[in-house]
Design brief:
- The structure is a single chain.
- By secondary structure, this protein is an all-alpha fold.
- Helix content is 71%, strand content 0%.
Length: 125
Amino acid sequence: MSELLTEFGKHLRALRQNKKMSQEELALKAGISPAHLGQIERAEKNLTLETAGKLSAALKVSLSQLFSFEGGTNSIPASTETATVDKINAQLNSMTPDEQKDILRIIRIFRGHTQKMAKKHIDTE
């Protein structure tokens, strides 16, 4: 069993759990068998690029997010920050390009306001 496969399986499981999905639910959405998904998560089977694409779509994460993990002895823990970004991405993916542009404008306005408030707070100390 390859260390890379082991780390990928741990990362895939963490992504799935962050989405609060069972193996059966993810497998159904990805169009693969639950047994196959379990074997990938346990590093018993390698996956094809086609399967990676299906898992990526089912999890609503990019392929780069699916493969964003450090090969090593420890898997990257599922963080709250990652879960929040995944939720934001899921919302953005369901929007039209014009709606996405509007959200980007709102973020820029919010960040500008937040930075002004922080500077104002520093200046008053």
